[in-house]
């Protein structure tokens, strides 16, 4: 059971630390980078609602259904966003990586790739999960592309699955990676991260 407690995961680019109420002001600044709450197909809180959102995630953690993390850049400590283990099923065991958002200026910089590598490694190698799931809005094409690029396979689409804040119904796309697929996914993510951080080739 100790393995399912809050934990800090550290990579070369980022540190994923247990979320706390003290992170809310920094996260409000991060969400304002790109005004992420204005994307209708996502659920990023406004700066004014950030403290309440953090409190709700901490309540879910207390209930045993979520482990939320704040993502910070190594070296500067700047808050880059939030990610969580959610829909936690300790008996199987399996979980979902979700409620993830990244400030606009940190997108496509290797931050998401390394964050997912850290989360997946802990899920499969420490928590012994048999599968890790990802879910996203059908219309969030950027997220769908990014999840597929991780090596996750699409399991299906849950039609009219959830009511959005604006009243619309969300079709949810479900992906997953299984424990037998993890070694290949891990190798690919490590390779992608190394290519991303490699220095540019000399000009001819």
Automatic annotation (TrEMBL):
Residues 14-153 form the N-acetyltransferase domain. InterPro entries: Acyl_CoA_acyltransferase, GNAT_dom. Keywords: Transferase. GO terms for molecular function: acyltransferase activity, transferring groups other than amino-acyl groups. Pfam families: Acetyltransf_3. Gene3D superfamilies: 3.40.630.30. This is RimJ/RimL family protein N-acetyltransferase. The lineage of its organism: Bacteria, Bacillati, Actinomycetota, Actinomycetes, Geodermatophilales.
């Amino acid at each position: 059971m100790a393995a399912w407690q809050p934990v800090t995961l550290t990579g070369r680019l980022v540190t994923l630390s247990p979320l706390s109420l003290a992170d809310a002001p920094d996260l409000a600044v991060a969400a304002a980078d790109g005004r992420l709450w204005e994307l209708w197909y996502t659920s990023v809180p406004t700066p004014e609602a950030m403290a309440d959102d953090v409190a709700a995630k901490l309540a879910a953690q207390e209930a045993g259904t979520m482990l939320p993390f704040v993502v910070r850049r190594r070296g500067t400590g700047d808050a880059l966003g939030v990610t969580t283990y959610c829909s936690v099923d300790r008996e199987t065991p399996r979980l979902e990586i979700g409620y993830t958002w990244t400030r606009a200026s940190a997108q496509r910089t290797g931050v998401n790739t390394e964050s997912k590598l850290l989360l997946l490694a802990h899920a499969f190698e420490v928590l012994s999960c048999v599968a890790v799931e990802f879910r996203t809005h059908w219309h969030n094409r950027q997220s769908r592309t990014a999840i597929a690029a991780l090596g996750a396979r699409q399991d299906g689409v849950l039609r009219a699955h959830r009511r959005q804040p604006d009243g619309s119904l969300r079709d949810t796309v479900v992906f997953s990676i299984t424990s037998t697929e993890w070694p290949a996914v891990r190798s690919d993510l490590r390779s992608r991260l190394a290519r991303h951080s490699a220095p540019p080739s000399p000009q001819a």
